[in-house]
Automatic annotation (TrEMBL):
Keyword set includes Signal: yes
Name of the protein in its database record: Carbohydrate-binding module family 13 protein
Biased composition (Polar residues): 238-247
Lineage: Eukaryota, Fungi, Dikarya, Basidiomycota, Agaricomycotina
Disordered: region residues: 238-260, 276-315
Keywords, alphabetical: Signal
Length: 340
């Protein structure tokens, strides 16, 4: 089933989380409290050290050599079952997080567009406690219980605030992790953020949600926005919206054109390991997912993420919502007369 609604109505709908230009809470990365949400197992007051037992739940996404991903706190974990308690693994020391062990990141492609930043790539992500063979899960700030996955997880970037220091909190983000592939998108605060960081397609994986470069290499690129995940422009000017469960799943949107890509010359993100190009050298056990055959957080029809249906991560009433509910939501949205 594909629902056809006007692009304007859709914009009204997705803007609901951004009310009067303000988010409900904004934290200063230089002055964080111990915790920020109920039921939080880790901490946001992480100090300036580093260790591999840290429970820090602050993510920083600034460039291909300075970013973090969510990973399980304990070894051999399925992302879907620990999504409420994942912790931060980072390239960059000094922020109280865990670090990616040497050789974890096999590729990393940072992309900055007008409305979002993202990092896409592959890795030996069993190094950050993801069980071998785990097809993965999705993390976002809108858990089924109204809290984020992880509870209390905060994301910061300096990309829109001068590109130095810890930057500012960014409120909309989505991250897919499997044992071999990852993708994270962080959306510039504003009325477009919820659409570009839509989080309801949580079993569709990286390529559907975050089109980008998953091939070998490490670089920083600029590029255009891709139309938000799940939206398909029609010849008549309307926009079709993919609804979870619809069959067949439409093809992922192609990645946008990139420009001014700068390959990383520093080896800092490898934590001392030799730069791998596609497959890690010196280890017969590394298995790199061939691009396009498997996608973090789902992607294979034969092995959907087992917990996905129990963790909608969705805006209330939207995930898997029947058409009538979706349309009445739209009607409500429009009758509120939301303006921005
Ligand atoms: C990981 O956990 C699974 C079951 O949860 C178990 O069968 C497997 O042996 C474990 N692997 C390692 C390396 O501990
Ligand atoms: C690990 O790092 C966390 C966060 O900075 C800190 O609270 C904890 O005390 C550290 N643990 C050790 C054993 O150093």
């Amino acid at each position: 089933m594909v629902v056809k609604i006007g692009a304007q109505s859709l914009a009204l709908l997705v803007a609901l989380t951004f009310v009067n230009g303000q988010y409900t809470a904004t934290y200063d990365p230089n002055n964080l409290p111990g915790t920020t949400e109920q039921g939080q197992t880790g901490t946001n007051a992480c100090g300036t050290g580093n260790n591999q037992t840290s429970q820090c739940q602050n993510l920083y996404v600034n460039s291909a050599e300075d970013f973090c991903l969510w990973g399980p706190p304990d070894p051999n974990s399925s992302v879907g079952t620990v999504e409420e308690i994942v912790v931060a693994y980072c390239t960059t020391p000094g922020r109280g997080t865990r670090l990616f062990p040497a050789g974890t990141l096999i590729s990393a492609h940072f992309l900055e567009t007008p409305d979002y930043i993202q990092v896409t790539g592959t890795g030996q992500l069993t190094n950050i406690n993801i069980a071998a063979g785990d097809s993965g899960g999705e993390l976002d700030p809108h858990g089924a219980d109204g809290f984020g996955n992880p509870h209390g997880g905060l994301v910061f970037s300096n990309v829109w605030s001068g590109k130095t220091g810890l930057g500012q909190q960014i409120h909309e983000w989505t991250n897919f992790m499997s044992d071999t592939e990852y993708c994270i998108r962080v959306c510039k605060d504003g009325p477009n953020a919820a659409a570009f960081c839509q989080h309801i397609y949580d079993i569709q994986g990286c390529h559907f949600n975050i089109p980008g470069d998953y091939d070998a290499g490490f670089d920083d690129c600029k590029g255009d926005n891709v139309i938000p995940m799940g939206l398909y422009p029609q010849p008549d000017g309307s926009t079709s919206t993919y609804v979870n469960g619809a069959n067949p799943t439409p093809a992922p949107q192609p990645p946008a054109a990139t420009s001014s890509c700068t390959p990383l010359t520093s080896s800092v993100i490898y934590n001392g390991a030799p730069a791998a190009t596609g497959s890690a050298s010196g280890s017969g056990s590394v298995t790199t997912a061939p691009s396009g055959t498997r996608s973090a957080g789902g992607g294979t029809t034969s092995s959907p993420r087992s917990t996905s249906s129990s963790s909608p991560n969705g805006a209330a009433g939207f995930h898997g919502a029947p058409l009538s509910l979706l349309l009445s939501l739209l009607a409500v949205t429009i009758s509120i007369g939301f303006v921005f």
